[in-house]
Amino acid sequence: MPTPEFVLDLREKVGHDLLWMSGVTAIVLDRAHENLLVVRRTDNGVWTPVTGIIDPGEQPAAAAVREVAEEADVTARPVRLLEVRTLPVMTYPNGDRAQYLDLCFLLEHVEGDPFPADGENTEARWAPVDELPDMPGRFREQLDLALSGRAEAAFRA
User: Fold this and answer.
1) Who is most buried in 4, 67, 111, 115, counting CB within 10 A?
2) Mean pLDDT of all residues in the chain?
3) Keyword annotations for this protein (predicted)?
């Protein structure tokens, strides 16, 4: 799904000014925790786990589940919160500026074969956790948290 309607409505009021947004990263592992669901973004060609914006009033774990279904046509169940972090300010090609509070969740695959379902990605597939495609470092850090077995979420000071 492209930019959510509520963000477009906000942009009509604030223009390109910085928006503080809540987002999710979904670290989706198969049941054996040997493969990570990855997608190749349409906008920049970068491989990432599924990410997305939390809708107003939506529970964050439900947003992660929804984004995985929308972007990769996969059903997954949330297991635990892995990490909370603030991402750097982003400036989009049209001049819009946003900064995200990222809530990263571990999800386990329930059913479905990955497919780039909504146009946000050109590819969706399982990648062995020890043979990942090149992706930004924060996603590898989040995968390490998922595989660590650590029960509590990580927070940055």
Assistant:
1) 67
2) 95
3) Hydrolase
